[in-house]
Amino acid sequence: MVVLQNLKFWNHQIRDFQIKDFEVDVTTEGLGQKEIDCSNFIALPPAVDLHVHFREPGFEHKENMHSGAFAALHGGILHVLDMPNTNPITDSTKAVLQKKELSSKQKWIEILVAAALTNYNFDEIEGLDSHCDAYKVFMSESFGNLSISYKNIENSLVKLESIESSKPIIFHAEDPRSIAESKKENTHSKKRPPEAEAFAVQAVLKWASDFPSLKFHLTHISSSLSLKFLDLIDSTNLTSDTCPRYLFLNEDSNIPRLYKKVNPPLRKISDNNRLIESLATGVVDMISSDHSPHTLAEKEKENPSGMPGVQELLPALLTLVKNMKIEWDRAIEAFHYLPSKLLNLETDESLNSFIVLDINEPFRVDKSWIKSKAKWSPFENLFLYGRIKHIVKNNSLIRM
Ligand SMILES: [Zn+2]
Asked: Where does the chain show beta strands of DSSP type E?
């Protein structure tokens, strides 16, 4: 046993910090200490990341369950939801079970599995519902057979309603017609304009009101145009998230051009500011990373869309707290309580699992800190707050 002394831990009942000693088990061998002075650190609930691509099976050269989970752990995350654009695509019970088996080989964190709703797997839905943790809907053109027509989305929703599904349905909201109309534009951000996202958001809002028993979620909201529609609604069955990249980065950011390509695209600095405000007020409910790593060689050759981000997720948000853009209780809702509720996870009020971090000293994102196989980050050289010092998982200490 070891005692974490003088730890300022977050008490969500009173929405404030309190000081306490914690006695925990030790898993790291050779730890001679009986006490660890934590008076400079704070303890928070672990983060939940509802949008990662750990690339296994099929693309293990980019990332795998083990390396992705290790990066998540170093970012203070104990639960992630993995997306279905792997090879094979996660669109059947068999593929979901295969992915669960692969994910169970690492013990760092819990990896939940999202199944795709596609034009081809309507008959699988009933079986899928007892095994997957969520559904992912790619509304626009995407990898392989993953995209689905609006008509087939509606058919799938009817089916999910009839089987009383409680699994969240997560939408990548970009409208395929708007993207087709912008095909001739010369930059990536103009090819996938804010209007494409806003049209798709409106379609999802309509479905959410037509299917009140189902749980809808809009992931990676990128543009202030979409916020105009989210601002107006007050539905209990629709939530949304945005990612640090849409809060910190924009078309004009001073980072390598290759690093910037992602879907939906980076927008303007005014979008960064509006999204931060919306996260602070709760118009946007939560955050996710959309961790979508590629190797640097791939980025340099064909520049596929996507960037890493799982390890940066929580420090990026905590940097906004530190800079007084977001209140503590809103931030904790956004990285822990609301994503836990969305993913049907039980929240641990007994403090068996928590993260211990340094909120006073900023650290520079550099290659030695990055644990993802990608070994690069669009946040490289940025100073962030919230370096993870220890993780307590089921009462056992993991020293970072
Ligand atoms: Zn994604």
From this structure: 2-11, 16-26, 35-37, 42-44, 47-52, 77-82, 110-116, 134-138, 168-172, 215-219, 238-242, 286-287, 354-358, 363-364, 383-384, 387-393, 396-399
